[in-house]
Amino acid sequence: MIDPKGMIRTILYYPLFMGRNFDEIKRIILALQKADQDSVATTADWRPGDDVIVPPAGSCGTAKERMESPGEDVYCLDWFMCFKREK
Length: 87
What we know:
By secondary structure, this protein is α+β, with helices and mostly antiparallel strands. The chain has 2 helices and 3 strands; from the N terminus they run αβαββ. It has a single domain, classed as Antioxidant, Horf6, Chain A, domain 2 (2-Layer Sandwich). It has helices at residues 22-38, 60-68; strands spanning 52-54, 74-78, 81-84. Strand 2 and strand 3 form a beta hairpin.
């Protein structure tokens, strides 16, 4: 998949004799759009409405602050792994 800026974002290889999974292709497009729109990452098998991954903290201070008060819709499993609940 090539984005509007001409950057290759995803390469899928299917042998000629194998069928394509169009549900997965659509999921990839939606996940790329979500990541670009909200500056987040998506998990494996992510679907619209599922929680997303918050980018890692840029410093120890930010990580500590995030763990102590993550925010209304954010929950952290550890200092480096925080998720945002989607509504």
